[in-house]
Design brief:
Keywords: Phosphoprotein, Transcription, Transcription regulation. The chain is of the alpha/beta class. It is built from 10 helices and 12 strands.
Length: about 280
């Protein structure tokens, strides 16, 4: 059945069955709600682990790779967060689903390179979790290009996007970016720095927009400049969004999602019009 997420995500690709997903959660209420929701929306059957021992056994019992784990921070037998540490040490992509969120915990979670965190403090918690799972399982259909002359910045953005399961290409300058775009027509989003030596972000965007519209490629500009007018100049050059550095992970991922959601919606509308 078609799925419309709280943030605006639309998915109608059918069953996502086949991916091995673990749920480390001891609450009967939440295990029941999550199991029912994922089965109903995406035909996903999850493996439930109600304590740390069951989580360890689930990993050991099968050679089939775990595609994604959803884990409470405090689990019986792992009251100090050992279950999350266990999953991270095994390099298993993990969404944290927790009712405990004290000051400083957010930074600790982000530092562990988790996929996402969902708080149990509202009635939409399970819906938000379902959307986060759906995004992770389908983000591989999106190809993102990062353009930045700083190797550090390219590595940082690339690692963030790969953590969310996107396919990523990188370019160290505008000339290389144009070559990659020409060779990879499936790229749907470009994240480009403004200040680059050969072709700056503005000029790169102008050149791309001469032949590629927003219905084919979304462009997000980034800059660490304090000049607030850069965003206006970038948007007038044909960009779709602009973020000032330093930005936090949640903001960056939200902007990426919003632009890709818009791209899919535009493409879907165009297909409907063409087939009418």
């Amino acid at each position: 059945m078609p799925f419309l997420g709280i943030s605006g995500m639309q998915y109608s690709g059918g069953s996502l069955a086949g991916a091995r997903i673990l749920l480390a959660e001891d609450s009967n209420v939440f295990t029941s709600m999550i199991s029912k929701k994922l089965k109903e929306l995406f035909d996903i059957d999850i493996e439930i682990c109600r304590n740390f021992e069951e989580l360890q056994l689930a990993y050991d019992k099968s050679a089939e790779p775990i595609r994604l784990a959803i884990s409470n921070i405090n689990l019986p037998g792992a009251e100090k967060g050992e279950a999350l540490e266990y999953l991270i040490d095994l390099s298993i992509p993990t969404i944290v689903f927790t009712g405990t969120f004290q000051e400083g915990m957010r930074d600790e979670l982000i530092a562990k390179d988790i996929v996402d965190y969902i708080l149990k403090d509202n009635i939409f918690a399970v819906d938000l979790l379902a959307e986060s799972i759906c995004r992770f399982l389908t983000n591989h259909r999106h190809h993102v290009l990062i353009v930045d002359d700083s190797a550090t910045a390219r590595a940082l953005l690339s690692s963030r996007l790969k953590r969310y399961n996107f396919r990523v290409s990188v370019a160290e300058n505008g000339t290389k970016a144009l070559e990659i775009l020409k060779a990879n027509r499936d790229i749907g989003l470009m994240v480009t720095d403004y200040n680059m030596p050969d072709i700056d972000g503005f000029e790169l965007t102008r050149r791309i927009r001469a032949s590629v519209g927003s219905h084919e490629l979304r462009i997000i500009g980034v800059s660490s400049s304090t000049n607030r007018l850069l965003s206006a100049r970038f948007l007038k050059a044909g960009g779709n969004d602009f973020i000032l550095r330093p930005f936090i992970d949640e903001e960056f991922y939200c902007r990426v999602n919003q632009n890709l959601d818009t791209l899919l919606q535009i493409q879907s509308m165009r297909q409907i019009r063409l087939s009418a």
